[in-house]
Amino acid sequence: MGAGASAVRVRVTDVVSEQTRLTATVHAPDWTLLVPEEWPSSLYRATFDVPLENRPATDEAEHEVWFAVRAARPGTASRILLSIPFATWRAYTYAGKPQQGLYYSEQPDRAPQVSFASPGGGPPPERWEEGLLRWLPGAGYPVDFCSGLDLHKGDELLSHYSLLVVNGHDEYWSMEMRDSVENFARRGGNIAFFAANTAWWQMRLEDYGRTMVCYRDAVADPVTATDPRRATVEWSSAPVDRPENTMTGLSFRRGAGAWGEGMAVMGKEAYTVRFADHWAFAGTGLTDGEPFARGALGYETDACALEWTGDVPRATGTDGTPGSFVVLATADLRHWREYGQGGEATMGVFRLGAGTVFNAGTINWGSVLADDPVADRITRNVLDRLSGAAPGDGWDPAGGPDEVRALAACASVLFGADTRGRLLCREVSGQNLPWRPVGLAPGVRALAAGREAAGGLPLELYAATEDGRLLRRDPVPGPVTGDAAGEWTEAGQVPPGTTGLALCDAGLFAVTPHDDRLHYLSALAPEEPWRVLGEAGGAVALTTLNCRLWAVTADGRLRTRLPVGPSDGPVPFADAGTPGPPPHPRTTLAAHAGVLYATAPGAPLLLCARPVLPPC
Questions:
Q1: Cβ neighbours of residue 3 under 8 Å, at least 6 residues apart?
Q2: How far is the C-alpha of 195 from the C-alpha of 165, rounded, in Å?
Q3: I need a surface site. Which of 230, 307, 327, 363 has the fewest CB within 10 A?
Q4: Does residue 213 surpass a pLDDT of 80?
Q5: Do 312 and 330 touch, CB atoms closer than 8 A?
Q6: Residue range 452-465: average pLDDT?
Q7: Could you give the residue ranges of the DSSP H alpha helices within 102-172?
């Protein structure tokens, strides 16, 4: 507060509402603020006015203390928790001053550790977090605030919320922060990263959380020899080898950066839509290939390794990005090499355990919210969906409308038969990948395949045709022979009117909606007659997931039962704990790796990643 100062004036401001909460005169060298219970959870700034001291305006931060006030009763006023990146703010304080700041990166006299008790530690001049903080109240979103350091062993705090929002530039994370946040998602919590360069460095907290340690060098860090998991290096680097992609879906390793005077390029860049049918774009009116959010990209962006099918990208996962990652938008920023680091930007969403993670892939997302209705709508969609305000029906789009009327997953390939009599295939994925023709499927009304070879049966694709034939063929994405008629082998008959077919434990199951019957046939004895197991519960489509039969009814219910044989007696279908896809009399169903897929002619391909069993 200044040597010899007899009195210091302090003003405490709620940064989000810009309301002054306290003005006081401090007469002691130390001052403790007891936060009144009526103060809302928010980000606050205490500004000290030291009399008779001349200082440049640029040194104002040295006379400020920034802090977050958590909710007195977490999660009661909001299901959204927003984290303030104090660790990153502190890391950039005193940049370039020997032994005072963690920057700059290549300076040998930078400090390996810094104290949170020192002056400053507020946001950088660009204030990357400010745009979203200003937007939230006016948009009608009450949120609870916390310091990012509260996430260090933050399991109990996070347990009160549905959604954690990480905003702006949150570059420094401890192992305990990552563990808590990842556990939160695996248990069903959701995360929205309106940020980039997230969790780039691993840091440690020492001295009861008052000191941040980051050597940024495994050789120099003494902990490397005893506990290499905690070495303060990039998360993706040895010996930590824990890419941030596994938590965020993206990484600055493939992103772009424009620094210094090059930051001006940010205003020129925009995202390009890659999956306009996704719920994140609902209400925007955007179409695939259209630009949006111009000015939101920068000054650093995150991305992931992609491969392309035409104009549709898919995350390869080679850099640690989870297999469930769905690319929503991309930007080619390779020309940024002129300004710093050339690369890309990616927006996407993925599953992490029972939770969902959205990532905007840019530090600067919040800057356009006040003036960009599309960015505003996307942000609302994410907050509403992941906070539970508009949680969805459990089914997410995985492709645009098509004419597919039969589905099956076999050998990690999704096969479809369309209304034109073609056999199609595509990767089993939530990405909006195009179908490609690979053969013929004339008159095929239902498809089925086993999860694996069982009971002496090879792994094959089965089909039921409109004229009552049972066919089978090898599950290869292409014609089996040069003769189109030889692609399928006759395997027997199906009950007349079959619209759904499933294979489980060497048993074939079929549903016939006209008489609401579930039928059974041993695939080892296809010449035997089909047996009626009982009512089909209104099913029009059928598949097998994890040794259970799953069915969809014409009125859109998702139902399930065990695939017991005739000797076990009648076992009814029961409504699942998850709603079914939109009602359609020609819905078809498939399953792969714990995920259900559904579509109908003229309807989009949908997936249900978390089907729920009927309540006990």
A1: none
A2: 9
A3: 307
A4: yes
A5: no
A6: 84
A7: 130-139, 155-158
Q: Say yes or no to pLDDT of 479 above 90.
A: no
d(CA 6, CA 27): 6
Percent of the chain with pLDDT over 70: 95
Residue among 175, 311, 303 nearest 233 (CA)? 175
- Please tell me whether the peptide bond between 299 and the residue prior to it is cis, using omega within 30 degrees of 0: yes
Encoded amino acid at 550, one letter: W
Q: How far apart are the C-alpha atoms of 513 and 516, rounded to whole Å?
A: 5
User: How far is it, in rounded angstroms, from Cα 132 to Cα 383?
Assistant: 12
Please check whether residue 577 is in contact with residue 570, taking contact to mean a CB–CB distance below 8 angstroms.
no
With a CB cutoff of 8 Å and minimum separation 6, the contacts of 59 are: none
Type of residue numbered 541? A
Whole-angstrom distance, CA of residue 346 vs CA of residue 263: 19
Which H or E element spans position 314? Answer: strand 312-315
pTM of the complete model: 0.95
Q: What 3-state DSSP class applies to 466?
A: coil
Contacting residues for 572 by C-beta, under 8 A, at least 6 apart: 534, 535, 537, 561
Q: Which amino acid is at 240?
A: V
* Torsional sign, CA 339, 128, 295, 399: positive
Lowest mean pLDDT across 219-228, 267-276, 434-443, 569-578: 569-578
Residues 6+ apart with CB under 8 A from 285: none
Unique residue bearing structure tokens 């120099």: 220
DSSP reduced 3-state for 202? strand
Please give the backbone phi and psi of residue 240, each rounded to the nearest 5 degrees, phi first.
Answer: -75, -50
CA distance 432 to 416: 15
Q: Rounded to the nearest 10 degrees, what angle do helices 373-387 and 130-139 cross at?
A: 70
The DSSP code for 121 is -
